């Protein structure tokens, strides 16, 4: 059994809560590692939290000015030299199908850090990521390790509802982020892919706190139920509309922008039922808003009919979806963020990957807002379209 096979077996046979110990033991034994640290990115995408015995006993590592953070941001292994000790630390991104979970940091003798060894460590990090996703069904260790602060109950409900924060396939890349990360309540996103299609929902629920989270949970699960029954997006919207109206009788409702992409052609069907908006950035051009026929939010009236309209995306297009917590955000003087500022923020992301775009747009929004926490949810989803 070679080194990588031994590491893979150790991770696949470890108890769910023992993955950090298992990867540390096998890397020490088979790779002569001096130390091993497994770090998970927090909900706010600001720090990498060491996965240790709870409560946390190790300091978090900043994402934006550290070697481990550079590995997380670039999604490439970063080799950090330790002066005078003959040791290097290799930081490998832990990522599952484009969903960036964290970093595996391994200290090795410098003379063993060959390209083949780096490739093996990258593979070990990938296996670790897959095992963490599976292990989260049976332990809270990794969900707790992601928390820099306590989540509100509404935020707990919302994060558990999400599919992930990034996803990648040859045809496209997705990235998304929500703020305030530890107190989000109504905004949400969802996606689902098959061999030939990608369905994407961006939602903006009304209300605050638990009531907003409950409304969004009902609507998203109604949409998923209809999608999994094989219905078109127009029928999905109609079924979810009925579910929300039956419960709230029009007192609460939810805005949603739904897009069903054909991966082979780039053709899409769109239902615009409320306030989330879409912008398109093409190579060499400016970011432009894309308008669709506005239809009623889900649950506002009984038995609303929805109509899907056509849209087409071209290879190289970047689509950015935002909730009203972005474009309605006000500065301390009361000035709305507005389309001009949003267009500049999107255009400034051209060199970033789709996974990094939402955080950057929200960072620029925070500068305009001038206060540490928004009064309303703010959601950004980015889709980079490559096509087939």
TrEMBL record:
Positions of the PPM-type phosphatase domain: 169-385
InterPro entries reported in the protein's UniProt record: Bact_Sigma-Reg (IPR052016), PPM-type-like_dom_sf (IPR036457), PPM-type_phosphatase-like_dom (IPR001932)
Record flagged with keyword Hydrolase: yes
Pfam families the record matches: SpoIIE (PF07228)
Top-level division of the source organism's lineage: Bacteria
Keyword field: Hydrolase
Protein's name according to its UniProt entry: Serine/threonine-protein phosphatase
Annotated source species: Streptantibioticus rubrisoli
């Amino acid at each position: 059994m070679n080194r990588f096979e031994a590491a893979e077996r150790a991770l696949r046979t470890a108890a769910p809560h023992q993955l950090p110990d298992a990867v540390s033991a096998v890397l020490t034994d088979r790779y002569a590692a001096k130390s091993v640290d497994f770090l998970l990115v927090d909900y706010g995408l600001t720090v990498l939290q060491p996965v240790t015995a709870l409560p946390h006993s190790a300091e978090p590592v900043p994402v934006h000015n550290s070697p481990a953070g550079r590995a997380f941001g670039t999604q490439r292994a970063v080799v950090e030299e330790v002066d005078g000790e003959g040791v290097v630390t290799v930081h490998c991104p832990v990522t599952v199908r484009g969903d960036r979970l964290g970093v595996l940091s391994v200290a090795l003798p410098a003379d063993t850090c060959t390209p083949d060894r780096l490739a093996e460590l990258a593979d070990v990090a990938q296996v670790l990521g897959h095992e963490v996703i599976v292990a989260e069904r049976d332990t809270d260790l990794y969900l707790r390790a992601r928390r820099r602060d306590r989540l509100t109950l509404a935020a707990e409900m919302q994060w558990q509802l999400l599919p992930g924060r990034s996803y990648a396939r040859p045809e496209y890349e997705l990235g998304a982020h929500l703020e305030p990360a530890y107190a989000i309540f109504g905004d949400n996103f969802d996606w689902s892919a098959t061999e030939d299609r990608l369905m994407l929902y961006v939602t903006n629920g009304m209300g605050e706190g638990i009531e907003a989270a409950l409304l969004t949970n009902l609507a998203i699960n109604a949409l998923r139920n209809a999608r999994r029954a094989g219905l078109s997006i127009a029928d999905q919207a109609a079924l979810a509309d009925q579910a929300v109206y039956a419960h709230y009788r029009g007192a609460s409702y939810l805005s949603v922008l739904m897009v069903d992409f054909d991966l082979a052609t780039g053709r899409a069907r769109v239902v615009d039922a409320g306030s989330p908006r879409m912008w398109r950035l093409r190579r060499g051009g400016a970011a432009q808003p894309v308008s669709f026929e506005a239809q009623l939010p889900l649950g506002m009236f009984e038995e609303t009919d929805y109509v899907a309209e056509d849209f087409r995306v071209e290879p190289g297009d970047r689509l950015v979806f935002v909730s009203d917590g972005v474009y309605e955000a006000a500065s301390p003087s009361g000035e709305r963020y507005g389309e001009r500022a949003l267009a500049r923020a999107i255009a400034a992301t051209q060199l970033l990957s789709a996974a990094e775009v939402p955080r950057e747009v929200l960072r620029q929004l925070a500068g305009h807002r001038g206060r540490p926490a928004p009064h309303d949810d703010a959601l950004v989803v980015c889709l980079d379209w490559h096509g087939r």
